Each structure stands twice: as structure tokens, then as C-alpha cells.
Amino acid sequence: MVTNLDPYIIIILFFMGSIFGSFLNVVIYRVPKNMSIVYPSSHCFSCKKKIPMKYNVPILGYFLLSGKCVFCLNRFPSRYAFVELITAIFTVIVYLIFNLNSLFFVYLILTYLLIAVTFVDIDHFIIPNGFILFGLSVLIISLMLDVLLLGWEYSVSGSFVFAGFLFCIGLIGQFILKKESIGFGDVKLGLILGGFLGVEYSILALYLSFALSAFIIIVFYRGKMNSGDTKIPFGPFLAAGTLISLFTIGPDGGNYILNWYYRTMF
Ligand SMILES: [Zn+2]
Fold this sequence. Notes:
This protein is an all-alpha fold and about 270 residues long. It folds into 2 domains: about 1-100, no CATH class; about 100-265, no CATH class. Helices cover about 65% and strands about 0% of the residues. Bound molecules: zinc ion (ZN). Zinc ion binds near residues 44, 46, 49, 71 and 74.
């Protein structure tokens, strides 16, 4: 936890986060379509004209253009501004919890990856292999540089617990529902998330993911689940469960939710 807050750092990180957010918008739109993420630069999907430099500002750009293309007045989805905003907010949150150190960069990259996973899974019901490979590389590099709070053995055990559990639930779901409930993409993502989290945090993240998904299904999809074609992406829940587990790490290295659990139960 950061004790002496520097407002300048927060403003700079918010701004940088929003720029990464607009890059994530590009990644979310182009990676599932196998398009290049560097070329071409941002343009209108309708008239293909390049968006003028002066409007190419994260978050604000959407409002400067009042959500429309300057040339053909085609409406831009407000989600672009939303992704930029939450990326900026998450950048500040990761700083407030972990301060500016090597852990900050690792968890920030993981957070950005999970934002991309969330929206691609919502749009296309897939978790691209490129995302998995990217996450795996970040995991292996951080283990080699020893910046995570856990060593190789704990990381590998976490991977097996996280992915193994999802794989078993997927098999059971397949058997009972006679359709895919948890996809193989989720299992592969679990392998990476478990590696970052270790065993104890993996169990917490899985618990939170399933609790959240149960809550959302009961509140928003009640009665619609048996119609057969209702599909809910599970990636966003895994992302949320993982981020909540990481963001509740206290200054002493313990986790607020786990501490509370142990205090109440034992
Ligand atoms: Zn246009």
C-alpha cells in the first residue's frame, strides 16, 4: 500500500493508463480477426478515414467528437472510452496497492492482459492463443527474474490447481449439460493465472470467479439458461476473480479476504 500519496504520479499514471487503454481497444478489436495491431492507425470503421490527430486523445477524444466520426457521422461505440477509462483506473489502483516496483509492472501487464481477455471473450467467446503465449512469457520472465511473491514450485503447483480444477469442472459440465460449459481456452488461461497466483490464491480466485458467475447468472439470466443457446463467457469471471485476489493483498503480504476467512472460520 502506498502511504505517502503523490498526486503527480497518480495523474501521470492515469494518463499513461488511458493511452494503454486505447492500445487495448486496438488489441481487442484486431487480435481475434488476425489483423496487425500496429498498422493501420486508428480510423473510422465505416468510412475508413483516419481519425485526426487532435481527436486522438484517450477518453476525451470520444467526447470531443461527441461519439461520432467527423467525416461520416457514424457513431463510435461508447465502449472504447469505457475501456480507456477502466484501464486508467486499474493502472492507478495497481500503483496504490503495490507502489512503483517490479511487482507493479508484472501485475499491471497481467491486468492489461485480463482486460483484453474479458472483452474479446465477451465479443467472440474465445481466448486467443496469442494472449495465452503472451501471458506465459510474462510469467516465465517474472519467475526467472524472481519478481513474483512466489517461487517456481508454488507457481507450477498453482497452474496445476487452477487449470486442473477448470478442466474437471469442464468435463463434469460437458457430461451433465451435454454442451461445452468451460472451454479449453479457459483451462489454458487458468494455467497462466494459477502460475501468477500460487495454490492458495488460485483457490481464492476460483472461488470468487464461480461465486460471481453464479450471482450474474441468477440475477440476469434466470430462466434463460435452459433455452440451450444461452452462452456466457467465463473468461471475464476468471479475470475478475484473479484481480480481486491480487488487489486484496495487504501491506504485510497477507490477503484481506483470506485473513477474514481464517479469522471467522477457525
Ligand atoms: Zn467515418
